[in-house]
Amino acid sequence: MAEEEAPLQTNPLDENFFYNSMLAKALVQLIPPNERVILKAWFDKLLELCKTPTEKELRNEYMWFILLMLQCQKVREPFNSMPPRELVPLRDAVPTKIYEEVLVANDDNMAWLDNLDVTQGEKRVRFTNSPPSAFFNNQPVPHEGIICYISAFSDREV
User: Fold this and answer.
1) Angle, to 10 degrees, between the axis of helix 12-27 and the axis of helix 53-72?
2) 33-48 and 12-27 helices cross at what angle (nearest 10)?
3) What InterPro entries does the record tag this protein with (predicted)?
4) Rounded Cα distance, 85 and 117, in Å
5) Could you give the CA distance from residue 99 to residue 1 in angstroms, rounded to a whole number?
6) Dist. CA 25–CA 36, nearest whole Å
7) Where are the domains of the chain?
8) HSE-up of 27 (CA within 13 Å, CB side)?
9) What is the pTM of this model?
């Protein structure tokens, strides 16, 4: 009698990190090569933070902020220099002015958050958080025209 394999347990902290890191690794191709080397070191450093929930939360905050910067195509402090040996909470590592500038620069990218509950005719469309594997199942179907989604993957090192 063959043993049944245990179902794969996914940790939301890990799921979030790997999803954001996948996006960041795609966007890093849009910045100058010399900045890519430094960000690769940051990616490697963040991968090391995987032992405790506290480490995972810290790593997710850093990756989230890196992703926001990459959406603006401008790398700022502290991510414009090699990562330190020990990471402090993000709020202590990023100057307040830079944190605010990055959030304001991404304001247009976040406009869709204001429309999380949308009415289309009589049908109500609700956008919710979901794992990447369920992305297409949670997308609205257009009445006219098309919606196009694109993904970028590479086996090249960043």
Assistant:
1) 30
2) 170
3) DUF4485
4) 43
5) 57
6) 9
7) 12-138
8) 20
9) 0.61
Give CA–CA dist 83/77, Å, rounded.
10
SS3 annotation, 109-151: HHHHHHHCEEEECCEEEECCCCCHHHCHHHCCCCCCCCCCCCC
The token duo for 118 is 């949308």
Structure-model confidence comparison of residues 144 and 129, the more confident one = 144
What span, in angstroms and rounded, lies between the C-alpha atoms of 131 and 117?
Answer: 19
Q: Please give the single-letter amino acid code of residue 148.
A: C
Model confidence band, residue 119 (pLDDT cutoffs 50, 70, 90): very low
Question: What's the start-to-end Cα distance of the chain, in Å?
Answer: 45
Residues 6+ apart with CB under 8 A from 123: none
Report the 3 state secondary structure along 45-94: HHHHCCCCHHHHHHHHHHHHHHHHHHHHCCCCCCCCCCCCCCCCCHHHHC
The distance of Cα 111 from the centroid of its chain, to the nearest Å, equals: 17
